[in-house]
Amino acid sequence: MTHPAVRLVGLRETPLDVEEVLGSLDDDASGGLVLFVGRVRDHDGGKGVTGLDYSAHPTALDRLTAVCERVAEEHDVHGLAAVHRVGTLDIGDAAVVVATVSSHRGAAFEASRALIDTLKAEVPIWKHQRFGDGTEEWVGSP
């Protein structure tokens, strides 16, 4: 991580800790902190979801770091953090946590939106969903 605003980037097989993310962004100069937590929901596409697994390509952490660096360069933030789960998750588990801090709320909101949207579009992490009817689906895989 070379941009000083990039404070925390990770892929975790263990439950995500919102307090870890918030702690990494402690900054007295920041008036706005925007936090997004993506959770495993119990439905998708009209089907009941019973659980899922996230798999990451070996380059996923490098790609996630690059996304964080780019968002830090493009937005007026003092700090940002992004962590994503891999492995088996249950309904309600946190799958991804991103946050940004800035002097003002507007910049923090814009940067957080850019961070989660770019992460989902560019980082090679794939979701394997299991449905209540016995079917399954891979999401985001090539």
From TrEMBL:
<comment type="subunit">
    <text>Heterotetramer of 2 MoaD subunits and 2 MoaE subunits. Also stable as homodimer. The enzyme changes between these two forms during catalysis.</text>
</comment>
<comment type="function">
    <text>Converts molybdopterin precursor Z into molybdopterin. This requires the incorporation of two sulfur atoms into precursor Z to generate a dithiolene group. The sulfur is provided by MoaD.</text>
</comment>
<comment type="pathway">
    <text>Cofactor biosynthesis; molybdopterin biosynthesis.</text>
</comment>
<dbReference type="GO" id="GO:0006777">
    <property type="term" value="P:Mo-molybdopterin cofactor biosynthetic process"/>
</dbReference>
<keyword id="KW-0501">Molybdenum cofactor biosynthesis</keyword>
<dbReference type="Pfam" id="PF02391">
    <property type="entry name" value="MoaE"/>
</dbReference>
<keyword id="KW-0808">Transferase</keyword>
<comment type="similarity">
    <text>Belongs to the MoaE family.</text>
</comment>
<protein>
    <recommendedName>
        <fullName>Molybdopterin synthase catalytic subunit 1</fullName>
        <ecNumber>2.8.1.12</ecNumber>
    </recommendedName>
</protein>
<dbReference type="GO" id="GO:0030366">
    <property type="term" value="F:molybdopterin synthase activity"/>
</dbReference>
<dbReference type="InterPro" id="IPR003448">
    <property type="entry name" value="Mopterin_biosynth_MoaE"/>
</dbReference>
<dbReference type="InterPro" id="IPR036563">
    <property type="entry name" value="MoaE_sf"/>
</dbReference>
